Amino acid sequence: MQALNSSVTWLAQQLQQRPALVLSGAGLSTESGIPDYRSPEALARPREPMRFQEFRSDERARQHYWARSHVGWSHMRRVEPNAGHYAVAELQQAGAASGVLTQNVDGLHQRAGSTDVIELHGSLARVRCLECRQTESMSSFQNRLRELNPGYSEQAAQLNPDGDVELTRDDTRNFRLAACLNCGGVLKTDVVFFGENVPKPIVEQAWRELAAADSLLVLGSSLTVFSGFRFAERAHRDGKPVFIINDGPTRADEFADLKLEGRLGTLLPQLAAEFRTARSTV
Predict the structure, then answer these.
(1) Which H or E run includes 165?
(2) CB atoms < 10 A from the CB of 158, how many?
(3) Is the pLDDT of residue 146 over 80?
(4) Domains (range + CATH), the chain
(5) 156 near 72, Cβ under 8 Å?
(6) Catalytic residue IDs
(7) pLDDT over 60 at 206, yes or no
(8) How far is CA 63 from CA 49, 85, 186, in A?
(9) Torsion-angle region of 45 (φ positive above 0: left; ψ -120 to 50: alpha; else: beta)
(10) Which DSSP category does 192 fall into?
């Protein structure tokens, strides 16, 4: 425990000298009740993600997707930020974090007070029309689905990392879809599906934030997916310190100047407190 506390103190001192771009993943939100992708529990119940081409071309696939999302939304709208999210916001406000780049789509960073968050994989807070590109808030869209499918959202099911739930095809075959209010087109959650690329402006903004940062702080991500790993790889290649806090191994452990393992809801408030102490002694 003493070694861990010393490491947290050292990291706080490093962030005072080298403010970090925060790169967060699903592990930061598990303590809010949203499952992650790589835990033993998640791997024990593998699931096939929705792919973009299937969603776009197959109405039955869209019906199945939106039915699962509709039930999951009744859970997701009650999820609250945890102590780790609030600690990240405090670190950003104090100058220890120069920015926040998240792989999460849950919006919990913003609700905890972080600003100018770059959402690498999009957001569950809105839907977008595939034809006219107009957006609608997810809450408005889900209300329209509720009117078309009264009582459907009351089904009990276990929440998935993407905010949906597991339902069988038989469960969803009579689910009614809502169309774009502007053109009547197909609406899709404004998140990056498998088979889609992260929008180029988002990637360019993320690279600019990394270039401007003095270090990279990875929180709650195994970095298994290349879209996140590449930032750790680039930071290391550019000679920027890479700090990792995660409850388990990551793909970038070999790049880490410091790796802490444990619950982020415990370690991040400790880090924020140590940063306050380090700053007050200057």
Answers:
(1) none
(2) 10
(3) yes
(4) 2-280 (3.40.50.1220)
(5) no
(6) 121
(7) yes
(8) 15, 33, 11
(9) beta
(10) P
